Amino acid sequence: MKPLSPTFGQEVRRLRNERGLSLTQLANRVQYSKGHLSKIENGRVPPNPDMARILDKALQAEGRLTELAEAPSRPIPSDHTTLRTYDSMFDHHRALGHRHSPDIVLPSLRHEMDVLNTLARSADDPGLGRALWLLAARYAEYAGWMEQERGDDASASEMTRRAVVFAAKGGDPELEAWAWVRAAEFSLYRGDARGTVLSALRAGKSRSPAVQAGAALREAQGYALAGAADRCEDALERAQQLQQAVGESPYGTRSLVDQVAVSRAWSFYDLGRHAEAAAILDTQLPLIAPTALRARTRFGLRRALAYAAAGEVDHACELVSGLLNDIRQVQSATVHTDLTAFSKLLSRLRPAAGREVAGEISEILFPG
Question: Which range has the top average pLDDT, 51-65, 222-236, 283-297?
Answer without folding.
Answer: 222-236
